[in-house]
Design goal:
- The chain is an alpha/beta fold.
- The protein has one domain (3-205): Maf protein.
- The protein has 6 helices and 7 strands, in the order E-H-E-H-E-H-H-E-E-E-E-H-H.
- Helix 1 packs across helix 6 (194-205) and helix 5 (186-192) crosses helix 6 (194-205).
- The chain is globular.
């Protein structure tokens, strides 16, 4: 019987990444049932590990007896002293940029990318070194069971390329592949992605 892991996320992009990463293991990845109706905890940690722990411990209390995993991940840019970091998903919001109330689509990724490019200005390619970093925490009945992490190194481009992926993927360039994260297929992304590496490390700890 395969191991079932519930993921505490409403992000379809994250769910897709984790499910793709789990394909080579005897693991079933599912979204935590009823997650949309659960009031989210305050993610006030100053590290990825702290926020992932907050979420995993909190949401595991809503599914007794089930192993719940939660991640906190984001982009760390050297020229910005590691920013946006834990604020990756809220980078534009922190700058006061939001969608209008009547917006028909969620443009968060667009605004976040725009703010990133503005902050980097005319920095050189050498200064644009960055990494995607993911920390995964597994919790059971309100207690942490395992923690893992994964990262992938790259550079931030001057303009987006590609239509795949989400978040900062169109700007995150992989020199060894001469492509952005938004230009590669899912299987290639799995082999190098920070979430894929973090999940692989976690499953190793769980002896899967």
């Amino acid at each position: 019987m395969s191991l079932r892991l519930y993921v505490a996320t409403t992000s379809q992009g994250k769910l897709r990444d984790f499910r793709t990463a789990a394909q080579t293991h005897a693991v079933s990845i599912e979204a935590l049932p009823g997650l949309a109706d659960i009031k989210p905890p305050e993610e006030d940690g100053d590290t990825f590990a702290a926020n992932a722990t907050i979420k995993a411990v909190y949401y595991s209390q809503f599914a007794p007896g089930e192993l719940i995993i939660a991640d906190d991940s984001g982009l760390e840019v050297d020229a910005l002293d590691g920013a946006p970091g834990v604020r990756s998903a809220r980078f534009a919001a922190d700058a006061g940029i939001f969608d209008s109330p009547d917006a028909g689509t969620d443009n968060t990724d667009v605004w976040n990318n725009m703010v990133l490019l503005q902050r980097l200005g005319k920095t050189t390619a050498e200064e644009r070194k960055a990494r995607y970093h993911c920390v995964l925490v597994a919790a059971l009945n309100g207690r942490v069971q395992n923690t893992s992490d994964g990262s992938v190194e790259g550079l931030i481009l001057n303009a987006p390329r590609g239509t795949g992926g989400f978040g900062y993927d169109p700007l995150f360039y992989l020199p060894e592949l001469e492509s952005t994260m938004a230009e590669i297929d899912l299987q290639t992304k799995l082999s190098i992605s920070h979430r894929g590496r973090a999940l692989a490390a976690l499953l190793k700890e769980l002896h899967v």
